[in-house]
Amino acid sequence: MDEKKKLCMFCGKDESFGAMNVEHFVPRALWDSKRPQDTQTVPAHVACNSSFSSDNDYFRDIVALDEGAAFHPEVQKLMAGKIDRKFQKKPGAMRISLKDLGPIPKHSKGGIYLGHAPAFTVDTVRVERVLRNIMKGVFYSVREEPLPADFQFSFADVTHETPEAIREVIDMLPPEWVGFGDDVFLCRYAIHPKYRGIMAALLQFYRNRTFFGLATPSDLNSLKNETDAGQPQPANS
Asked: Interior CA angle at 137 toward 236 and 154, to 5°?
């Protein structure tokens, strides 16, 4: 029997479309030095893989420089290591990460003024590209195949507040957080067993910044004729 062709996690095409290697779908930039030994990899074209390297660094800056992440030991290593070197050697790149940096008023949930805190503009397009690739990687590591090419993604930052509609979906996810041996990256996810792999996930970084992601077919009408298979169930990794 012929060996099953490896398909790129990014584009879904095989090695005839370009040289392939393996991708650590959770960016290695999130760690200052060595990643955990349990970090998983999936197949990827070299060209596809390299095209996201600057997005990964940008994403690392965004989640590590969030004030709520300052307590995390790996963030502290980054601040004294990779991020400090970026400040020193690539100030232009750092200015891109900290676009429009300046003080903004901060209030409690009850509206009490708590003073000013530094804030900067986040490029949500770049952030969502990284989140999309992580979800693709998680799916591939479970199903051993890429997400269908026609899938679309939606994301929400639920670090501080979760809309009620999203809360209902989150409540259906398995309660256990899954990672690679540390808590730099943790996720909770469910992949629908029959509806073409519809996937919902919580993606958390440094025990602080948390995003909700949903992957669905672009043509949702195609699901109308399928038999309702019940609530999403977690897939075994």
From this structure: 100
Give the pLDDT confidence of 23-74 residue by residue, as tens digits.
888 999 999 988 888 888 899 999 888 878 889 999 999 999 988 999 999 9
- d(CA 31, CA 142) in angstroms, rounded, equals 23
For residue 82, give the amino acid letter: K
**Tell me, what DSSP letter sits at residue 17?**
G
Selection from 4-8, 102-106, 108-112, 130-134 with the highest mean pLDDT:
130-134
Sign of torsion over alpha carbons 89, 91, 96, 98: positive
Angle between helices 73-80 and 53-64 (to 10 degrees): 110
Contacts made by residues 192-196, CB under 8 angstroms, sequence distance 24+: 192/229, 192/232, 192/233, 193/229, 193/232, 193/233, 193/235, 194/226, 194/227, 194/229, 195/223, 195/226, 195/229, 196/148, 196/223
